[in-house]
């Protein structure tokens, strides 16, 4: 859903009421949070069938987040559809040509199309203010712990590596031979946890977020749905689109979001951050880590 008002009001209100919903209403809410585009085009009976709940469940859920009923709840989603989305005819034409080229052209077109859509959908739902607030929390913290396991382990470590070229308070966890909850043992309200996981959600990441909240840490959650347990437990939550024709979830939008978040951290930092980065890279040149292009 590309409509900012819908993303920032209806969906966030629904996510905020999650703990107060009945288990059946949570099933309905999860379907809406993960499939917002379906709301504007589905009757209450249709969407209830999709979510495998009774129609009255959607009516009660809508009333609980401040609407008179499902039709009132549905209206912002219908408005977003009426407003339409930005079209890219040249890109669409190119993808069609690739798909018709034979061989692996169809797979190539599917992968490229998914990557582009993921980037667009992710940043359509992320505001400048949200990034700035998260960046300020990160910059003003004592220590930043970046947590990703499985496919997101490399994403978390890459973010930490880049940040460490100008800042010293970043740590990728879990550390070798450790667990995430052990690494957070002495963290408190002065610290930030950046946690990353997409469906199926990794237990150790969810548990680490719970521990972080108990210890008063600020949590930045990056996941693929507003229904994700780490988004619901985050002070700053960012939803990334991760659809892909392949088996594993795509990391394209996660990497793009992390790079953007880091650029915001540098933007809100004090001026000496630029000197630190320059000094870091100058020293690498002096040590011969970079190949001299003149040789």
Automatic annotation (TrEMBL):
GO process annotations (BP): carbohydrate derivative metabolic process
GO molecular function: carbohydrate derivative binding; DNA binding; DNA-binding transcription factor activity
Domain SIS span(s) in chain numbering: 134-271
Highest taxon, organism lineage: Bacteria
All residue ranges annotated as the HTH rpiR-type domain in the record: 8-84
Gene3D superfamilies named among the record's database cross-references: Glucose-6-phosphate isomerase like protein, domain 1 (3.40.50.10490), Winged helix-like DNA-binding domain superfamily/Winged helix DNA-binding domain (1.10.10.10)
Stored SUPFAM superfamilies: Homeodomain-like, SIS domain
Keywords: DNA-binding, Transcription, Transcription regulation
Pfam families: HTH_6, SIS
InterPro entries the UniProt entry points to: Homeodomain-like_sf, HTH_RpiR, RpiR-like, RpiR-like_SIS, SIS_dom, SIS_dom_sf, WH-like_DNA-bd_sf
Name of this protein: RpiR family transcriptional regulator
Organism listed in the record: Shimia isoporae
């Amino acid at each position: 859903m590309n409509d900012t008002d819908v993303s920032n009001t209806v969906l966030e209100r629904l996510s905020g009421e999650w703990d107060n919903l009945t288990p059946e209403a949570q099933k309905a809410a999860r379907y809406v949070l993960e499939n917002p585009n379906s709301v504007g085009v589905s009757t209450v009976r249709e969407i209830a069938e999709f979510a495998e709940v009774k129609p009255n469940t959607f009516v009660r859920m809508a009333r609980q987040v401040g609407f008179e009923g499902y039709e009132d709840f549905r209206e912002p989603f219908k408005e977003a559809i009426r407003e339409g989305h930005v079209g890219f005819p040249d890109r669409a034409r190119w993808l069609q040509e690739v798909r018709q080229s034979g061989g692996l052209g169809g797979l190539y077109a599917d992968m490229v199309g998914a990557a582009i859509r993921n980037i667009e959908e992710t940043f359509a739902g992320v505001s400048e203010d949200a990034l700035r607030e998260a960046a300020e929390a990160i910059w003003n913290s004592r220590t930043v712990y970046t947590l990703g396991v499985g496919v997101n382990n490399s994403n978390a470590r890459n973010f930490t590596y880049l940040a460490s070229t100008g800042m010293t308070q970043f740590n990728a966890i879990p550390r070798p031979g450790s667990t995430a909850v052990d690494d957070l043992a002495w963290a408190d309200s002065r610290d930030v946890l950046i946690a990353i996981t997409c469906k199926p959600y990794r237990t150790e990441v969810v548990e680490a977020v719970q521990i972080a909240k108990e210890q008063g840490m600020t949590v930045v959650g990056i996941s693929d749905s507003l229904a994700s347990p780490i988004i619901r437990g985050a002070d700053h939550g960012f939803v990334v689109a991760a659809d892909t024709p392949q088996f594993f979830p795509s990391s394209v939008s996660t990497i793009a979001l992390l790079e953007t978040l880091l650029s915001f951290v540098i933007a809100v930092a004090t001026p000496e951050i630029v000197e630190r980065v320059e000094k870091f890279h100058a020293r690498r040149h002096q040590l011969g880590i970079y190949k001299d292009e003149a040789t």
